[in-house]
Amino acid sequence: MNKQLLCEAFCQDLDVSNVPAGLVVRTGFMTRDGDAIGFYVTRHPLDAGLWRVEDSGLVVPMIEAAGVNLDSGSRAVAFHRLLEEHGASFDDESMELHSEYVLESDLPSEAMRFVALLLRVQDLELLNNETVANTFREDVIADLDRLLSQGATIQYRTAPHKLLKDFEADALIQKNGSSLALYFATTDERVNEAVILWMENKERNAGLKVALMLEREKPPQINNRSLRRAMNRLDATTVYRDDEIGSMSRVASLVGMELETLQ
φ, ψ for residue 230 (rounded to 5)? Predict the structure, then answer.
């Protein structure tokens, strides 16, 4: 292995050491925590002329430990897009990120591309809960407008009834005298407000139906107690992701609409 090829690519900040499997490389790039970004260069087990770049197997677990879901959702999509863009793969068993096997002459450029991946993977932590919540909200609104607006009146972020002006539903859907206050389960506060609105609606006999839209079956940002209270009391609780049409159909049925006739 010609270390000079790697040194020319990464400048003098590169620290390269021999290990039994190949090389361990410490770069001058840093994580947001101030740790140096490093990687391993390992030889193909059957072809001595091929090499690949690997991480330590700790990058993805540390990101997931910070609360980033890489199995599903917006950040999972972004993660797999990054892998594709950088020609890399993720091994679910070893938890390692790695490049494809390449010739030694191609290794410097492959290593540079892999370091770029490690730097960008950190940005997945910046896709915070507010960003994910906004994406969920925008997707639901787009589907409501596309599938229900031709048969019902929809208002967003509005008081659900003149007797309930202290509340703000994420969507108020009305058709032929039926009214549905729909809440998007982006936080515990939104879930709890939906339950309180349901209780006030019963007390004041306002004639509303109140429903909650979850992004996923077990939203990590929602307290189990809040979710259980909502599911046991509200007129409906629906799950959006992976069954968008089904969730829209359930919402439509609460105001007396048949979704199938609108598509």
Answer: -65, -45
* DSSP state letter for 28: E
How many other CB atoms sit within 10 Å of the CB of residue 14?
A: 17
Domains in the chain, start-ordered, CATH in brackets?
3-126 (3.30.1460), 129-262 (3.40.1350)
**Spatial separation of the C-alpha atoms in residues 197 and 51, rounded to whole Å:** 61
Question: With a threshold of 0.85, does the pTM exceed it?
Answer: no
Question: pLDDT tens digits, residue range 215-234?
Answer: 988 777 788 888 999 999 99
Per-residue burial over 156-186, b if 16 or more Cβ lie within 10 Å, else e, is: eeeebbebbeebbbbbbbebeeebbbbbbbb
As a whole number of angstroms, the distance between CA 249 and CA 227 comes to: 21
The per-residue pLDDT for range 109-118, each reduced to its tens digit, is: 898 899 889 8
CB 182 within 8 A of CB 170: yes
CA atoms within 13 A on the CB side of 167: 27
CA distance 98 to 44: 12
Residue 175 parent element (H or E): strand 169-175
Complete DSSP assignment for 72-129 = SSHHHHHHHHHHHHTTEEEETTTTEEEE--EEGGGHHHHHHHHHHHHHHHGGGGGS-H
Q: Which of 176, 171, 253 is nearest to 213 (CA)?
A: 171
